[in-house]
Amino acid sequence: MGELALVYGEAATGKTTAVIQAAAAIASKGFKVVYIDSDRSFTQQRFDQIASRRSADVSELITLFFPENFSEQRKIVESLENYVTGKLGMVIVDSISSLYRAAFSGPESVFNLNRDLSRQVAYLGELASSHKIACLITSQVHSRLQPPTADIEPVARRTVFHFPRIILRINKTPKPRVREFVLERVDGVDTARNSCLVSLQEGGLADAAV
Fold this sequence. Notes:
alpha/beta, globular, about 210 residues, nine-stranded mixed beta sheet, two-stranded antiparallel ribbon, about 35% helix, Rossmann fold
């Protein structure tokens, strides 16, 4: 509790499954969750699969928001203080960058968009620290040319990497349902990238057989 964490990876790597599973786990302990679904990735069917028999009970503890644009996402994020109580355990934004990226086709300047994204991530970091709430954000990625091979990085990497004290990258593997979870930062310190293999199943994420 009390830290901002970033999860990033390519499409279909399991980012949304990971955060839905986190929401269900926190709610099952009796804490409330605020879930901002900017990607429109949260579905009741997927939640029911992951939460299983607990679904009906824990779903009542999860407040969902579906912002239509980046400006609306900013307003929701900046209003989160209104939802802070002793029972609020987690805030999730999935993903922090999708509506930011979509806003580039609109009238807003790049400077304003970058400023707003930075304010949102900074606000979440401060919210986590001051109220001892777990804040979890995901990010879309784009390709970065890094000879001799290409790599990926989060959209607006400088901003989304600056504030989180925990950073987790999810990689695809040769096995279709197996993902590599790479811990890139913990407690604000960049790590030697410890990793583990995780199986993506109907009921969520589980340890993968070696």
